[in-house]
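hiii, so i know i said id send this last week but things got crazy w the move. better late than never?? heres the sequnce for the chain we talked about at the cafe, plus the structure i predicted for it. fair warning i was half asleep when i ran it
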Amino acid sequence: MTRAVHFSDSQAALFDRDEAPETALPGQERLPSYIRDHRARLRERFMVGGADALPDYEMLELVLFRAIPRRDIKPLARALLERFGDFNGVLSAPPPRLAEVAGVGDAVVTELKIVEAAAHRLARSKVLRRPVVSSWDALLQYCQTAMAHADIEQFRILFLDRKNVLIADEAQARGTVDHVPVYPREVIKRALELNASAIILVHNHPSGDPTPSAADIDMTQQIQMAADTMGITLHDHLVIGKSRELSFRAEGLL
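okay and structure toks below
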């Protein structure tokens, strides 16, 4: 059952200040009523049903309202989705590639990057300082949020204490579209500095296919040997693809 949402005067003023006629600069046309009405309806639908009530292009419109307050942004939202595939792809796109889309300026890039950073911080807060076993799904979601849409390979290490509580998450290296340099000695050195008892390796495949390469397997074996020597447990190596991840442990590679 759908219920109406009524905003207080102060809430309405906050939501609508970018469309209010008094905010128009001299010589600037007032935002057409059909656009104002569309924005109001979209916001109300979001407040009633949340993000699940809106398709990607309408969620993107909501984000862009603040960056472009006085123009119809539906065409831009659709152009961004056509270029980058989905909502997550738009948020994760590098600023230079975003700027290639007609209509995207500094304000749009900044707004998108703020939302992306907020999503990463929220996802990270759900796993940091918590036992990995009880928050495994949240951990996978965090890895997907942080890495699935990156256009170059990134290598991260999750450091755990004796109770398998995540004590640190650090990016160790950034590479190219299909390779990232990783040095087992540096991985173990950092684990010892943090007094970590166990680690989880994570890296992404920009191609979208999380199938590990021969180099991935070889590198993992080298880190496992180094970790065993120092009494550190290698719990898993996760390879993050566009829509799914692969676990070395689940695949019998560890």
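btw Residues 9-121 form one domain. thought thatd interest u
miss u guys!!
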